[in-house]
Design goal:
With 170 residues, the chain is mainly α. Helices cover 58% and strands 8% of the residues. The protein is built from 7 helices and 3 strands; from the N terminus they run E-H-H-E-E-H-H-H-H-H. It has a 3-stranded mixed β-sheet. The longest helix is centred in the C-terminal third of the chain and has 39 residues. The two termini are 42 Å apart.
């Protein structure tokens, strides 16, 4: 699998990459890590390379790059030495292992993610409904306050809103 690198991060420390590591640490301390991480992707593209403690790191949010890394060609990728040191914090598991142990761990939890994804879908729809109505109309419909499985009125509103959105301007 060839990962298309559009850009490389312009490190001030091109050997160890400590400049970026310190910048990440500062953004974590300020509570701005997600915003600043998003800005990195906006500036350098959906896939770019950085250096961390002397090792090249591929940063990507490109689904076509993530698929081989996490599923189809996992053996071609690894965590590297930094991640392996995290065993002390996380223990031996899916977050700190490569290879056969990782594949076994992933096979064990795969059904859980499939079930969780199906169970979370109504909650995500409600969240989107609440934030959208708050933004558009100045008041949320508070759909998250109703019980899961009791969609009723909220579901009808979502269907009507989706219908209107799809047909506006036709």
């Amino acid at each position: 699998m060839d990962v298309c690198l559009q850009k490389k991060y312009p490190h001030k420390d091109p050997f160890l990459g400590l400049d970026l590591l310190l910048a990440v640490r500062r953004s974590l301390q300020r509570g701005q890590s997600l915003v600043e991480n998003q800005q990195l992707y906006e500036r350098y593209g959906r896939t770019f390379q950085t250096i961390s403690f002397g090792s090249p790191i591929i940063n990507t949010i490109e689904p076509e790059n993530l698929k081989p890394m996490l599923a189809t060609s996992f053996d071609n990728f690894g965590f590297g030495p930094v991640r392996r040191h995290m065993r002390e914090l996380w223990g031996k598991g899916i977050l700190s292992e490569d290879g056969e142990y990782w594949q076994h761990s992933r096979a064990l939890i795969r059904p859980t993610f499939a079930k969780a994804q199906a169970h979370l879908e109504p909650l995500f729809k409600r969240y989107i409904l609440d934030t959208s109505t708050e933004f558009l109309f100045g008041e949320s419909v508070h759909s998250q306050a109703s019980k899961v499985g009791d969609e009723g009125e909220n579901e009808r509103f979502i269907e009507a809103f989706e219908y209107a959105s799809m047909n506006i301007g036709k």
